[in-house]
Structures
1.
Amino acid sequence: MVKGKRIGPLLLTAALLFAGCGEEAVHTSAQAENAEVSAEPTDENAEESAEPTGEKTEEGAESADEAGGARSVETAENADAQAVAESGFMAPLEMDETLRTELTEELLEENEMDTSVVESALVTKGCSFTLPEAFSESEDIQGMYVTKRYPIDASTIYYVALGKDVALQLMTEETFKAQAEENFEKAYGEEIEVAIDSFERIKIDGCPAFRILCHYQVGDIEMTQLEYAINADKSYVITYSQTEDYDRMEEYEASAETIRLEF
């Protein structure tokens, strides 16, 4: 169906709003009804995630050369820090990891945000949660769980695990909204306004996390998404999505209560 083809990719784009660029889905597995979803990140994802970063940096250097000379290392670092301060997100540019962490911690302290993600020495093996009974693993898209009536019932649950990003803790309601709308415009060539219904900073198993409820209109289809992002030694994002035709929010809330980190 045209509706299903349209909705599917859109859900994936929204599910990766926290990632910025270089995101990679991590293998998940689910049994039959009411199964528990569990995934373990791999080092391979971190390596793959770094590739787009290098390409972007190289392109930036080439542009600078054409303009009359490449930036010095010191100038580049200052520009990176400025980008962080203005956007609320850590710019995906090449930077010493120690410097990146120090800049992030300073910004968190200045804005009186949670710095525990910088200080924590926890090591997680993955994240798990219980699927609602109507959902099972998609045969086509890794990390996605759908109903038997998909795409007629376009309700989905999408899980992704990403590399560590302490700067995720700098995210605000405003920067989330701006990044979401930018991603949609790049993906679909049209402006889509994202309305934030609630934006909460919470804790899951002692780690800082976000709970974000939002909705947006695509053509004549209204989408609602409930997103959980856990900021630990890895970033774990779970996105529950539905159209206006199917209200599964009660099931989604029950599933979200079972989200746990695996140590």
2.
Amino acid sequence: MAPRFRVPVLLLVCAGAASGCQSVLTASTADVAGIAGAGIANAVTKSPALATGIGLGVAAGATAGLQAVERDVHRAEQDRIAEAAGSLDPGVVGHWTVTHRIPIENNEHGDLVVTRLIGGADFACKEIVFSVDTADQTGEHRAFYTATVCQDGSVWKWASAEPATARWGSLQ
């Protein structure tokens, strides 16, 4: 990678690592992608139309990269919740926790309970209610959500298509 391209890429990585706030992270990604796109376009062409296309391509790539990382973070959280629910009988309260490898969201924890069993011997699923406990400057907060988890071989996996639009938007 040429030295002039290393700085924008480094800025993108630093902006992602330094930000814990989703809106700041999204804006930072867009801003850094714009800077990187301008640098790449300036190095490649003097054509305004081509430079615009390069800039839009870099911005789209940065957004797609951020969304892929967000999906991995959400999948890790869903896997921890499903794992905790898998060993519970209906009505028993359990606990879940997740520590994210990539710190774009806070590590979280909460309680969960299996509300009913669904399926049969070869098709085992559980409907659950779980909490997400967070803390900020204003104090402790608890939010509740519902989901379905199903057994896939020896592991329990998230089975809900849209677990909580208010929580994660349209992105799981």
3.
Amino acid sequence: MGSFNPFTIGHDSIVRRVLPLFDRLVIGVVGDNVHKPDMPAAVERMEAIRRLYGDEDRIEVKSYHGLAMDFAKAEGALYIIKGVRSVSDFEYEQWQADFNRRLGGIETILLYTEPELSSVSSSALRELQHFGVDISPFLPKKENQ
């Protein structure tokens, strides 16, 4: 679950590594956010992810508003999967996981980022793009292209 603005090779790595563990994977895309008015519409971000995984029937892409744990419960999920790049990511995800478990009964599984992808973040890519840098090497490509 995330804003996926943009959906990176790091996100793709997490999806591909976790998919063998589950029968169904729902990628929850945070709906339009008033705190981030420059973010592309949720429908645009969702379409990009759907195109990437269009051949994989176990993956669904849906938008949500509100708490991730409420979305997970509404989807019948038992787990929320999150990627972690650094100690600061871990600390942030740790307190979220605690609330998801205590308040929502949803377990969080943290999957460590592959070392070569640890610097890839949507925020960094947006900044690079703002300065005219081609970010396409950091965006996933459909495997059969």
